[in-house]
Protein backbone atom coordinates (compact mmCIF):
# COMPACT_ATOMS: atom_id res chain seq x y z
CA UNK A 1 0.00 0.00 0.00
CA UNK A 2 1.51 3.33 -1.07
CA UNK A 3 2.09 6.16 1.42
CA UNK A 4 -0.43 9.02 1.39
CA UNK A 5 0.64 11.98 -0.76
CA UNK A 6 2.34 14.96 0.86
CA UNK A 7 0.09 17.91 1.68
CA UNK A 8 0.69 21.58 2.45
CA UNK A 9 -0.72 23.79 5.16
CA UNK A 10 0.05 26.91 7.20
CA UNK A 11 1.45 26.25 10.68
CA UNK A 12 3.43 27.83 13.50
CA UNK A 13 6.75 26.05 14.00
CA UNK A 14 8.87 26.17 17.17
CA UNK A 15 12.53 25.17 16.99
CA UNK A 16 14.50 24.77 20.22
CA UNK A 17 18.19 23.97 20.66
CA UNK A 18 20.18 23.13 23.79
CA UNK A 19 23.03 25.57 24.42
CA UNK A 20 26.46 23.92 24.76
CA UNK A 21 25.14 20.43 23.99
CA UNK A 22 28.36 19.26 22.32
CA UNK A 23 30.41 20.35 25.33
CA UNK A 24 28.01 18.55 27.70
CA UNK A 25 28.23 15.38 25.63
CA UNK A 26 32.00 15.61 25.61
CA UNK A 27 32.05 15.86 29.40
CA UNK A 28 29.52 13.08 30.11
CA UNK A 29 27.94 11.48 27.07
CA UNK A 30 25.85 8.83 28.84
CA UNK A 31 24.72 11.13 31.63
CA UNK A 32 23.79 13.96 29.28
CA UNK A 33 21.82 11.63 27.00
CA UNK A 34 19.92 10.18 29.94
CA UNK A 35 19.16 13.62 31.34
CA UNK A 36 18.04 14.82 27.90
CA UNK A 37 15.67 11.86 27.45
CA UNK A 38 14.09 12.41 30.88
CA UNK A 39 13.80 16.16 30.28
CA UNK A 40 11.97 15.65 26.97
CA UNK A 41 9.58 13.11 28.46
CA UNK A 42 8.85 14.80 31.78
CA UNK A 43 9.00 18.52 30.92
CA UNK A 44 9.21 19.42 27.25
CA UNK A 45 6.59 17.12 25.71
CA UNK A 46 3.94 17.89 28.40
CA UNK A 47 4.65 21.62 28.05
CA UNK A 48 4.19 21.55 24.28
CA UNK A 49 1.07 19.38 24.53
CA UNK A 50 -0.46 21.77 27.10
CA UNK A 51 -0.20 24.54 24.49
CA UNK A 52 -1.91 22.46 21.79
CA UNK A 53 1.30 21.59 19.99
CA UNK A 54 3.04 18.37 18.98
CA UNK A 55 6.67 17.38 18.62
CA UNK A 56 7.31 16.17 15.10
CA UNK A 57 11.07 15.75 15.27
CA UNK A 58 13.64 15.13 17.99
CA UNK A 59 17.32 15.76 17.26
CA UNK A 60 20.29 15.07 19.46
CA UNK A 61 20.32 18.61 20.80
CA UNK A 62 16.91 19.99 19.97
CA UNK A 63 13.20 19.82 19.29
CA UNK A 64 10.91 20.83 16.41
CA UNK A 65 7.24 21.30 17.25
CA UNK A 66 4.12 22.31 15.31
CA UNK A 67 1.24 24.47 16.56
CA UNK A 68 -2.05 25.44 14.95
CA UNK A 69 -1.90 28.85 16.66
CA UNK A 70 0.94 31.36 16.63
CA UNK A 71 -0.13 32.64 20.05
CA UNK A 72 0.04 29.10 21.46
CA UNK A 73 3.55 28.63 20.03
CA UNK A 74 4.87 31.88 21.50
CA UNK A 75 3.18 31.32 24.87
CA UNK A 76 4.76 27.87 24.98
CA UNK A 77 8.18 29.35 24.18
CA UNK A 78 7.74 32.01 26.89
CA UNK A 79 6.73 29.45 29.52
CA UNK A 80 9.65 27.25 28.49
CA UNK A 81 12.18 30.05 28.92
CA UNK A 82 10.65 30.99 32.28
CA UNK A 83 11.00 27.53 33.83
CA UNK A 84 12.37 28.15 37.34
CA UNK A 85 14.90 25.28 37.30
CA UNK A 86 15.60 24.44 33.66
CA UNK A 87 17.50 21.24 33.01
CA UNK A 88 19.18 22.82 29.96
CA UNK A 89 19.57 26.39 28.67
CA UNK A 90 17.90 26.71 25.27
CA UNK A 91 17.51 29.06 22.33
CA UNK A 92 14.11 29.13 20.60
CA UNK A 93 12.91 30.27 17.18
CA UNK A 94 9.26 30.62 16.14
CA UNK A 95 7.97 31.10 12.58
CA UNK A 96 4.61 31.02 10.83
CA UNK A 97 4.80 29.65 7.33
CA UNK A 98 3.90 27.10 4.69
CA UNK A 99 4.86 23.54 5.61
CA UNK A 100 4.84 20.23 3.77
CA UNK A 101 3.30 17.31 5.70
CA UNK A 102 4.45 13.79 4.90
CA UNK A 103 3.22 11.18 7.39
CA UNK A 104 4.20 12.33 10.88
CA UNK A 105 7.01 14.53 9.57
CA UNK A 106 6.86 18.09 8.30
CA UNK A 107 9.40 20.13 6.42
CA UNK A 108 9.67 23.09 4.06
CA UNK A 109 10.77 26.73 4.30
CA UNK A 110 8.40 27.41 7.22
CA UNK A 111 10.39 24.87 9.24
CA UNK A 112 13.78 26.01 7.91
CA UNK A 113 13.19 29.64 8.90
CA UNK A 114 12.19 28.63 12.44
CA UNK A 115 15.43 26.66 12.76
CA UNK A 116 17.52 29.56 11.44
CA UNK A 117 15.79 31.98 13.82
CA UNK A 118 16.62 29.71 16.73
CA UNK A 119 20.30 29.91 15.75
CA UNK A 120 20.14 33.73 15.98
CA UNK A 121 18.64 33.78 19.51
CA UNK A 122 20.79 34.42 22.56
CA UNK A 123 20.63 31.70 25.23
CA UNK A 124 17.41 32.03 27.22
CA UNK A 125 15.67 34.12 24.56
CA UNK A 126 13.27 33.64 21.64
CA UNK A 127 13.63 34.93 18.08
CA UNK A 128 10.48 35.32 16.00
CA UNK A 129 9.86 36.25 12.38
CA UNK A 130 8.10 39.48 11.45
CA UNK A 131 4.95 37.59 10.46
CA UNK A 132 4.79 36.09 13.97
CA UNK A 133 5.34 39.55 15.46
CA UNK A 134 2.42 40.89 13.45
CA UNK A 135 0.15 38.12 14.71
CA UNK A 136 0.98 38.45 18.43
CA UNK A 137 1.83 42.13 19.01
CA UNK A 138 -1.61 42.95 20.45
CA UNK A 139 -2.20 39.54 22.02
CA UNK A 140 0.96 38.71 23.98
CA UNK A 141 2.13 41.26 26.55
CA UNK A 142 5.89 41.03 26.19
CA UNK A 143 8.65 43.33 25.00
CA UNK A 144 9.96 42.53 21.51
CA UNK A 145 13.24 44.02 20.26
CA UNK A 146 13.62 44.62 16.52
CA UNK A 147 16.85 43.03 15.25
CA UNK A 148 16.24 44.26 11.71
CA UNK A 149 16.29 42.19 8.53
CA UNK A 150 18.76 39.33 8.91
CA UNK A 151 20.30 37.20 6.19
CA UNK A 152 19.68 33.63 7.32
CA UNK A 153 21.75 30.71 6.04
CA UNK A 154 20.19 29.01 2.97
CA UNK A 155 17.16 31.36 3.08
CA UNK A 156 16.90 33.40 -0.12
CA UNK A 157 15.47 36.67 1.25
CA UNK A 158 16.35 38.53 4.47
CA UNK A 159 13.92 37.91 7.33
CA UNK A 160 12.96 40.73 9.66
CA UNK A 161 13.53 39.32 13.12
CA UNK A 162 12.41 40.19 16.65
CA UNK A 163 13.91 38.92 19.89
CA UNK A 164 12.04 38.32 23.14
CA UNK A 165 13.87 38.06 26.45
CA UNK A 166 11.25 36.74 28.90
CA UNK A 167 13.03 38.17 31.92
CA UNK A 168 12.34 41.66 30.46
CA UNK A 169 8.72 41.33 31.61
CA UNK A 170 9.84 42.62 34.98
CA UNK A 171 10.52 46.30 35.65
CA UNK A 172 13.34 47.26 33.28
CA UNK A 173 16.78 47.81 34.68
CA UNK A 174 19.75 49.51 33.10
CA UNK A 175 21.98 47.27 31.02
CA UNK A 176 25.04 49.29 32.08
CA UNK A 177 25.99 51.61 34.90
CA UNK A 178 26.17 55.25 33.85
CA UNK A 179 29.74 56.47 33.35
CA UNK A 180 31.02 59.27 35.54
CA UNK A 181 31.55 61.36 32.41
CA UNK A 182 28.61 63.05 30.66
CA UNK A 183 27.39 60.27 28.36
CA UNK A 184 25.46 60.70 25.11
CA UNK A 185 24.07 58.71 22.20
CA UNK A 186 23.30 60.46 18.91
CA UNK A 187 20.54 58.57 17.10
CA UNK A 188 20.47 58.62 13.29
CA UNK A 189 18.53 61.68 12.15
CA UNK A 190 15.33 61.04 10.19
CA UNK A 191 15.29 61.90 6.50
CA UNK A 192 12.11 63.96 6.06
CA UNK A 193 12.78 64.82 2.40
CA UNK A 194 10.44 63.48 -0.25
CA UNK A 195 13.39 61.89 -2.04
CA UNK A 196 14.82 58.88 -0.13
CA UNK A 197 18.14 59.49 -1.90
CA UNK A 198 18.77 62.29 0.61
CA UNK A 199 19.09 59.78 3.45
CA UNK A 200 22.87 60.26 3.10
CA UNK A 201 22.44 63.86 4.26
CA UNK A 202 20.68 62.86 7.49
CA UNK A 203 23.15 60.01 8.12
CA UNK A 204 26.11 62.26 7.44
CA UNK A 205 25.02 64.94 9.89
CA UNK A 206 24.49 62.28 12.59
CA UNK A 207 27.89 60.69 11.96
CA UNK A 208 29.72 64.01 11.95
CA UNK A 209 28.11 64.99 15.25
CA UNK A 210 29.17 61.66 16.80
CA UNK A 211 32.74 62.15 15.56
CA UNK A 212 32.96 65.71 16.86
CA UNK A 213 31.49 64.89 20.26
CA UNK A 214 33.80 61.88 20.61
CA UNK A 215 36.82 64.17 20.48
CA UNK A 216 35.83 65.83 23.75
CA UNK A 217 37.95 63.90 26.20
CA UNK A 218 35.51 64.07 29.10
CA UNK A 219 32.52 62.87 27.09
CA UNK A 220 31.45 59.23 26.85
CA UNK A 221 29.93 58.86 23.37
CA UNK A 222 28.29 55.69 22.06
CA UNK A 223 29.71 54.55 18.72
CA UNK A 224 27.93 55.15 15.43
CA UNK A 225 27.54 51.44 14.72
CA UNK A 226 25.38 50.94 17.81
CA UNK A 227 23.20 54.05 17.53
CA UNK A 228 22.50 53.34 13.85
CA UNK A 229 20.82 50.04 14.78
CA UNK A 230 17.85 52.20 15.82
CA UNK A 231 17.55 53.71 12.34
CA UNK A 232 14.00 53.74 10.99
CA UNK A 233 12.48 52.67 14.32
CA UNK A 234 10.06 54.51 16.57
CA UNK A 235 12.19 54.52 19.71
CA UNK A 236 11.47 54.93 23.40
CA UNK A 237 14.18 57.33 24.62
CA UNK A 238 14.13 55.90 28.14
CA UNK A 239 14.70 52.43 26.75
CA UNK A 240 17.57 53.64 24.54
CA UNK A 241 19.18 55.24 27.57
CA UNK A 242 18.95 51.94 29.48
CA UNK A 243 20.18 49.77 26.61
CA UNK A 244 23.18 51.97 25.83
CA UNK A 245 23.91 53.14 29.36
CA UNK A 246 23.85 56.89 28.67
CA UNK A 247 22.45 59.98 30.39
CA UNK A 248 21.57 61.93 27.24
CA UNK A 249 20.07 60.96 23.89
CA UNK A 250 20.00 63.23 20.85
CA UNK A 251 17.56 62.81 17.99
CA UNK A 252 16.55 64.96 15.04
CA UNK A 253 15.51 65.20 11.43
CA UNK A 254 16.72 66.66 8.15
CA UNK A 255 14.57 67.96 5.32
CA UNK A 256 15.99 69.18 2.01
CA UNK A 257 13.93 71.31 -0.35
CA UNK A 258 15.65 72.78 -3.38
CA UNK A 259 18.90 74.34 -2.23
CA UNK A 260 17.82 74.71 1.39
CA UNK A 261 18.03 72.31 4.28
CA UNK A 262 16.14 72.32 7.58
CA UNK A 263 17.63 70.47 10.54
CA UNK A 264 15.76 69.97 13.80
CA UNK A 265 17.49 68.52 16.83
CA UNK A 266 16.71 67.86 20.46
CA UNK A 267 18.77 66.70 23.38
CA UNK A 268 16.87 64.62 25.94
CA UNK A 269 17.75 63.42 29.42
CA UNK A 270 17.05 59.72 28.96
CA UNK A 271 15.97 58.74 32.48
CA UNK A 272 13.29 61.44 32.76
CA UNK A 273 12.48 62.29 29.13
CA UNK A 274 13.22 65.95 29.97
CA UNK A 275 14.23 68.08 26.98
CA UNK A 276 17.56 69.74 27.78
CA UNK A 277 17.73 71.62 24.51
CA UNK A 278 15.94 71.80 21.14
CA UNK A 279 16.57 73.90 18.06
CA UNK A 280 15.64 74.26 14.40
CA UNK A 281 18.11 75.40 11.76
CA UNK A 282 17.34 76.64 8.22
CA UNK A 283 20.36 76.99 5.97
CA UNK A 284 21.50 76.95 2.39
CA UNK A 285 22.86 73.51 1.52
CA UNK A 286 26.32 75.02 0.98
CA UNK A 287 26.41 75.97 4.67
CA UNK A 288 25.94 72.42 5.94
CA UNK A 289 29.43 72.17 7.44
CA UNK A 290 29.09 75.45 9.34
CA UNK A 291 25.75 74.16 10.59
CA UNK A 292 27.33 70.96 11.91
CA UNK A 293 29.99 72.92 13.80
CA UNK A 294 27.35 75.24 15.27
CA UNK A 295 25.20 72.30 16.41
CA UNK A 296 28.18 70.51 17.95
CA UNK A 297 29.24 73.57 19.95
CA UNK A 298 25.67 74.15 21.16
CA UNK A 299 25.27 70.53 22.30
CA UNK A 300 28.57 70.61 24.17
CA UNK A 301 27.53 73.84 25.84
CA UNK A 302 24.16 72.39 26.84
CA UNK A 303 25.60 69.18 28.27
CA UNK A 304 28.74 70.51 29.92
CA UNK A 305 28.69 74.31 30.34
CA UNK A 306 32.11 74.41 31.97
CA UNK A 307 33.93 73.20 28.85
CA UNK A 308 36.37 75.86 27.82
CA UNK A 309 36.33 77.62 24.50
CA UNK A 310 39.66 75.98 23.70
CA UNK A 311 38.18 72.51 24.12
CA UNK A 312 35.19 73.46 22.01
CA UNK A 313 37.41 74.66 19.21
CA UNK A 314 39.39 71.42 19.32
CA UNK A 315 36.43 69.33 18.19
CA UNK A 316 36.02 71.16 14.89
CA UNK A 317 37.57 69.50 11.87
CA UNK A 318 38.31 70.78 8.43
CA UNK A 319 35.30 70.34 6.17
CA UNK A 320 35.75 69.13 2.60
CA UNK A 321 35.85 71.82 -0.06
CA UNK A 322 32.82 70.40 -1.88
CA UNK A 323 29.58 68.75 -0.85
CA UNK A 324 30.18 66.14 -3.56
CA UNK A 325 33.29 64.87 -1.76
CA UNK A 326 31.39 64.69 1.54
CA UNK A 327 28.43 62.85 -0.02
CA UNK A 328 30.65 60.30 -1.75
CA UNK A 329 32.64 59.86 1.48
CA UNK A 330 29.42 59.06 3.39
CA UNK A 331 28.48 56.45 0.80
CA UNK A 332 31.91 54.87 1.14
CA UNK A 333 31.67 54.68 4.94
CA UNK A 334 28.24 53.04 4.64
CA UNK A 335 29.68 50.26 2.47
CA UNK A 336 32.78 49.94 4.65
CA UNK A 337 30.74 48.94 7.72
CA UNK A 338 28.60 46.46 5.77
CA UNK A 339 31.31 43.79 5.79
CA UNK A 340 30.84 41.87 2.57
CA UNK A 341 33.30 41.49 -0.28
CA UNK A 342 31.03 43.41 -2.65
CA UNK A 343 30.58 46.24 -0.13
CA UNK A 344 34.34 46.28 0.42
CA UNK A 345 34.91 46.94 -3.29
CA UNK A 346 32.28 49.70 -3.30
CA UNK A 347 33.76 51.30 -0.18
CA UNK A 348 37.19 51.45 -1.79
CA UNK A 349 35.69 52.93 -4.96
CA UNK A 350 33.73 55.68 -3.20
CA UNK A 351 36.45 56.62 -0.71
CA UNK A 352 39.07 56.78 -3.48
CA UNK A 353 36.77 59.06 -5.45
CA UNK A 354 36.18 61.31 -2.43
CA UNK A 355 39.96 61.59 -1.96
CA UNK A 356 40.39 62.55 -5.61
CA UNK A 357 37.67 65.21 -5.42
CA UNK A 358 39.27 66.78 -2.34
CA UNK A 359 42.88 65.66 -1.67
CA UNK A 360 42.88 67.65 1.60
CA UNK A 361 39.82 65.89 3.06
CA UNK A 362 41.57 63.78 5.71
CA UNK A 363 38.72 61.45 6.78
CA UNK A 364 38.39 60.09 3.23
CA UNK A 365 42.09 59.11 3.25
CA UNK A 366 41.84 57.69 6.79
CA UNK A 367 38.89 55.42 6.09
CA UNK A 368 40.34 54.40 2.73
CA UNK A 369 43.42 53.25 4.65
CA UNK A 370 41.23 51.14 6.92
CA UNK A 371 39.41 49.60 3.93
CA UNK A 372 42.77 48.47 2.53
CA UNK A 373 43.49 46.78 5.89
CA UNK A 374 39.98 45.30 5.91
CA UNK A 375 40.66 43.61 2.58
CA UNK A 376 43.66 41.81 4.07
CA UNK A 377 42.19 40.70 7.41
CA UNK A 378 39.07 39.35 5.65
CA UNK A 379 41.11 37.81 2.78
CA UNK A 380 39.29 39.89 0.14
CA UNK A 381 42.45 41.43 -1.27
CA UNK A 382 44.31 39.82 -4.17
CA UNK A 383 47.63 41.24 -3.00
CA UNK A 384 48.07 41.62 0.76
CA UNK A 385 51.42 43.40 0.62
CA UNK A 386 50.19 45.97 -1.92
CA UNK A 387 46.98 46.60 0.03
CA UNK A 388 48.88 47.28 3.25
CA UNK A 389 51.32 49.55 1.42
CA UNK A 390 48.46 51.54 -0.19
CA UNK A 391 46.69 51.71 3.15
CA UNK A 392 49.72 53.19 4.90
CA UNK A 393 50.14 55.80 2.16
CA UNK A 394 46.49 56.84 2.55
CA UNK A 395 46.81 57.02 6.35
CA UNK A 396 49.89 59.26 6.06
CA UNK A 397 47.91 61.58 3.77
CA UNK A 398 45.17 61.74 6.39
CA UNK A 399 47.69 62.78 9.05
CA UNK A 400 49.15 65.40 6.73
CA UNK A 401 45.67 66.91 6.48
CA UNK A 402 44.99 66.59 10.24
CA UNK A 403 47.75 65.44 12.64
CA UNK A 404 45.07 64.72 15.29
CA UNK A 405 42.95 62.36 13.15
CA UNK A 406 42.10 59.41 15.42
CA UNK A 407 40.92 57.29 12.48
CA UNK A 408 44.26 57.74 10.73
CA UNK A 409 46.15 56.49 13.80
CA UNK A 410 43.64 53.64 14.06
CA UNK A 411 44.31 52.58 10.46
CA UNK A 412 48.08 52.89 10.95
CA UNK A 413 47.85 50.70 14.05
CA UNK A 414 45.90 48.01 12.23
CA UNK A 415 48.31 48.02 9.28
CA UNK A 416 51.34 47.83 11.57
CA UNK A 417 49.72 44.81 13.24
CA UNK A 418 49.41 42.99 9.91
CA UNK A 419 53.03 43.88 9.13
CA UNK A 420 54.18 42.29 12.40
CA UNK A 421 55.15 45.56 14.12
CA UNK A 422 53.20 45.04 17.34
CA UNK A 423 54.93 47.75 19.39
CA UNK A 424 54.25 50.35 16.68
CA UNK A 425 50.71 49.05 16.31
CA UNK A 426 49.94 49.39 20.03
CA UNK A 427 51.48 52.89 20.15
CA UNK A 428 49.35 54.09 17.21
CA UNK A 429 46.15 52.58 18.60
CA UNK A 430 46.78 54.01 22.06
CA UNK A 431 47.24 57.40 20.41
CA UNK A 432 43.96 56.89 18.58
CA UNK A 433 41.99 56.29 21.79
CA UNK A 434 43.80 59.20 23.46
CA UNK A 435 42.56 61.49 20.69
CA UNK A 436 39.08 59.92 20.70
CA UNK A 437 38.33 58.19 24.01
CA UNK A 438 34.97 56.94 22.66
CA UNK A 439 36.39 55.21 19.57
CA UNK A 440 35.09 51.64 20.01
CA UNK A 441 36.80 50.24 16.92
CA UNK A 442 40.18 51.52 18.10
CA UNK A 443 39.76 49.57 21.34
CA UNK A 444 38.83 46.52 19.26
CA UNK A 445 42.03 46.90 17.21
CA UNK A 446 44.08 47.47 20.35
CA UNK A 447 42.66 44.25 21.79
CA UNK A 448 44.04 42.17 18.94
CA UNK A 449 47.45 43.85 18.91
CA UNK A 450 47.79 43.33 22.65
CA UNK A 451 46.92 39.65 22.20
CA UNK A 452 49.65 39.25 19.59
CA UNK A 453 52.00 41.02 22.01
CA UNK A 454 51.23 38.39 24.67
CA UNK A 455 49.36 40.83 26.98
CA UNK A 456 46.23 38.69 27.24
CA UNK A 457 44.56 40.35 30.25
CA UNK A 458 45.02 43.80 28.69
CA UNK A 459 43.67 42.47 25.40
CA UNK A 460 40.53 41.16 27.09
CA UNK A 461 40.01 44.47 28.91
CA UNK A 462 40.32 46.44 25.65
CA UNK A 463 37.74 44.16 24.03
CA UNK A 464 35.37 44.77 26.95
CA UNK A 465 35.76 48.52 26.51
CA UNK A 466 34.94 48.21 22.80
CA UNK A 467 31.73 46.37 23.71
CA UNK A 468 30.80 48.98 26.34
CA UNK A 469 31.23 51.85 23.87
CA UNK A 470 29.20 50.11 21.17
CA UNK A 471 26.95 47.51 22.84
CA UNK A 472 24.62 47.09 19.83
CA UNK A 473 27.36 47.16 17.20
CA UNK A 474 26.39 45.13 14.08
CA UNK A 475 30.01 44.03 13.78
CA UNK A 476 30.43 43.16 17.45
CA UNK A 477 31.04 39.62 16.20
CA UNK A 478 34.55 40.79 15.27
CA UNK A 479 35.27 41.89 18.85
CA UNK A 480 33.93 38.54 20.10
CA UNK A 481 36.22 36.76 17.62
CA UNK A 482 39.25 38.62 18.96
CA UNK A 483 38.28 37.64 22.50
CA UNK A 484 38.15 33.99 21.35
CA UNK A 485 41.52 34.47 19.60
CA UNK A 486 43.03 35.91 22.80
CA UNK A 487 41.89 32.95 24.91
CA UNK A 488 43.22 30.56 22.25
CA UNK A 489 46.69 32.13 22.48
CA UNK A 490 46.44 32.00 26.28
CA UNK A 491 45.56 28.27 25.95
CA UNK A 492 42.28 28.76 27.83
CA UNK A 493 40.31 26.69 25.35
CA UNK A 494 37.02 26.52 27.26
CA UNK A 495 36.74 30.32 27.30
CA UNK A 496 37.93 30.41 23.70
CA UNK A 497 35.05 28.12 22.71
CA UNK A 498 32.53 30.20 24.65
CA UNK A 499 33.58 33.37 22.81
CA UNK A 500 33.75 31.51 19.48
CA UNK A 501 30.15 30.38 19.99
CA UNK A 502 29.11 33.96 20.76
CA UNK A 503 30.86 35.03 17.56
CA UNK A 504 29.11 32.44 15.45
CA UNK A 505 25.69 33.23 16.94
CA UNK A 506 25.94 36.94 16.16
CA UNK A 507 23.41 37.69 13.40
CA UNK A 508 25.93 39.61 11.28
CA UNK A 509 28.90 37.26 11.63
CA UNK A 510 30.81 37.35 8.34
CA UNK A 511 33.78 35.79 6.61
CA UNK A 512 35.94 32.92 7.80
CA UNK A 513 36.83 34.18 11.28
CA UNK A 514 33.83 32.81 13.24
CA UNK A 515 34.27 29.29 11.87
CA UNK A 516 38.05 29.44 12.31
CA UNK A 517 37.67 30.31 16.01
CA UNK A 518 35.23 27.40 16.43
CA UNK A 519 37.48 24.96 14.58
CA UNK A 520 40.62 25.84 16.55
CA UNK A 521 38.84 25.88 19.92
CA UNK A 522 37.08 22.55 19.38
CA UNK A 523 40.21 20.87 18.06
CA UNK A 524 42.23 21.94 21.10
CA UNK A 525 39.49 20.45 23.29
CA UNK A 526 39.75 17.13 21.46
CA UNK A 527 36.38 17.40 19.68
CA UNK A 528 37.84 16.60 16.29
CA UNK A 529 34.72 15.78 14.27
CA UNK A 530 33.03 19.04 15.28
CA UNK A 531 36.23 20.94 14.55
CA UNK A 532 36.48 19.39 11.08
CA UNK A 533 32.95 20.52 10.26
CA UNK A 534 33.85 24.14 11.02
CA UNK A 535 37.14 23.81 9.15
CA UNK A 536 35.12 22.88 6.05
CA UNK A 537 33.14 26.11 6.52
CA UNK A 538 36.42 28.03 6.73
CA UNK A 539 37.64 26.59 3.44
CA UNK A 540 34.29 27.26 1.82
CA UNK A 541 34.78 30.97 2.64
CA UNK A 542 38.51 31.09 1.77
CA UNK A 543 39.30 28.03 -0.41
CA UNK A 544 43.06 28.64 -0.58
CA UNK A 545 43.63 29.39 3.11
CA UNK A 546 46.61 27.62 4.68
CA UNK A 547 48.17 27.46 8.12
CA UNK A 548 51.42 28.81 6.67
CA UNK A 549 49.66 31.87 5.29
CA UNK A 550 48.08 32.63 8.67
CA UNK A 551 51.42 32.11 10.39
CA UNK A 552 52.94 34.79 8.16
CA UNK A 553 50.02 37.19 8.54
CA UNK A 554 49.72 37.21 12.34
CA UNK A 555 53.17 37.58 13.82
CA UNK A 556 53.52 37.53 17.59
CA UNK A 557 56.08 39.36 19.71
CA UNK A 558 57.01 36.10 21.43
CA UNK A 559 58.06 33.41 18.92
CA UNK A 560 55.63 30.49 18.80
CA UNK A 561 52.84 32.28 20.68
CA UNK A 562 50.45 31.76 17.74
CA UNK A 563 50.94 27.99 17.85
CA UNK A 564 47.79 27.06 19.89
CA UNK A 565 45.66 28.66 17.17
CA UNK A 566 47.64 27.16 14.29
CA UNK A 567 47.78 23.73 15.93
CA UNK A 568 44.01 23.70 16.34
CA UNK A 569 43.49 24.57 12.69
CA UNK A 570 45.92 21.86 11.56
CA UNK A 571 44.11 19.23 13.62
CA UNK A 572 40.76 20.45 12.25
CA UNK A 573 41.95 19.97 8.69
CA UNK A 574 43.22 23.33 7.40
CA UNK A 575 46.10 22.44 5.07
CA UNK A 576 49.66 23.35 5.96
Automatic annotation (TrEMBL):
<protein>
    <recommendedName>
        <fullName>Guanylate cyclase domain-containing protein</fullName>
    </recommendedName>
</protein>
<dbReference type="Pfam" id="PF00211">
    <property type="entry name" value="Guanylate_cyc"/>
</dbReference>
<dbReference type="Pfam" id="PF13432">
    <property type="entry name" value="TPR_16"/>
</dbReference>
<dbReference type="InterPro" id="IPR011990">
    <property type="entry name" value="TPR-like_helical_dom_sf"/>
</dbReference>
<keyword id="KW-0802">TPR repeat</keyword>
<dbReference type="GO" id="GO:0035556">
    <property type="term" value="P:intracellular signal transduction"/>
</dbReference>
<dbReference type="InterPro" id="IPR019734">
    <property type="entry name" value="TPR_rpt"/>
</dbReference>
<dbReference type="GO" id="GO:0009190">
    <property type="term" value="P:cyclic nucleotide biosynthetic process"/>
</dbReference>
<dbReference type="InterPro" id="IPR029787">
    <property type="entry name" value="Nucleotide_cyclase"/>
</dbReference>
<dbReference type="InterPro" id="IPR001054">
    <property type="entry name" value="A/G_cyclase"/>
</dbReference>
<dbReference type="GO" id="GO:0004016">
    <property type="term" value="F:adenylate cyclase activity"/>
</dbReference>
<feature type="domain" description="Guanylate cyclase">
    <location>
        <begin position="12"/>
        <end position="118"/>
    </location>
</feature>
<feature type="repeat" description="TPR">
    <location>
        <begin position="406"/>
        <end position="439"/>
    </location>
</feature>
Amino acid sequence: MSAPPATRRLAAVLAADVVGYSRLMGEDEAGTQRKMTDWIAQTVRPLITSHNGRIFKLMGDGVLAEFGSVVDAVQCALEWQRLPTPAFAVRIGVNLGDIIVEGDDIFGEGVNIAARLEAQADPGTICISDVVHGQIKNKVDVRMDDLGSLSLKNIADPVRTWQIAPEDDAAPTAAFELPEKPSIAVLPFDNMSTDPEYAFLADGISEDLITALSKVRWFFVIARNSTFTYKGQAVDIKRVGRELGVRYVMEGSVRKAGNRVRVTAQLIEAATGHHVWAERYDREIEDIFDLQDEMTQTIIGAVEPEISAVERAAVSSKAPETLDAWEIFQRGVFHMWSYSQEDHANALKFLTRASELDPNFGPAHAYRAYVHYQGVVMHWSDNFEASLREGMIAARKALAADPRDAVAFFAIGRIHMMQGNQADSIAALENSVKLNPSFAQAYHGLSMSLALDGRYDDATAAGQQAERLSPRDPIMWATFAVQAFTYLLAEDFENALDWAQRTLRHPNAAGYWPSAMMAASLANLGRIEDAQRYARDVLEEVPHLTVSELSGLYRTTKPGALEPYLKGLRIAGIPE
